[in-house]
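re: ur question from yesterday

yeah so i grabbed the chain u mentioned. its 122 aa long if i counted rite. heres the sequnce exactly as i have it in my notes:
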Amino acid sequence: AAGWSTAGCLVDWFLEVWRSHRPVLRVVAPLTEEGDLRFRHSRARMLNSTTRSLAAAIEANAGKAPGDADPMAMAGALVAMLAQVASHQKGFEAWETHMTEGRDAMIRLIYWGGTGPKIPKR
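ran it thru and got these structure tokens back, copy pasting raw so excuse formatting
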């Protein structure tokens, strides 16, 4: 239960940060993609603390949850998802999907990524 609540808090915080700083982040994203190192480093610093904290939580849970994913790789993928979805909040409405559904989907993915759902044998 604590993991689910924590995942919800992380998603809500991330969505709020993106809503609050939307004008700046709308400029940073394309400049980062174009290779502007000033903005790339700023964005990396912004996302790095969240990624490292999430990786630490995944690592701490490693003994309790199945899965063989590298904690930093998992955290990086999850934070990239958070950033991408947060930047498309208005797009969800255009896709005829309410953002609450997108929020719930992200909570599930963060929870599963952090607790290690059973992965089918490959």
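noticed a couple things. The mean pLDDT is 82. also The chain is about 80% helix and 0% strand.
anyway ttyl
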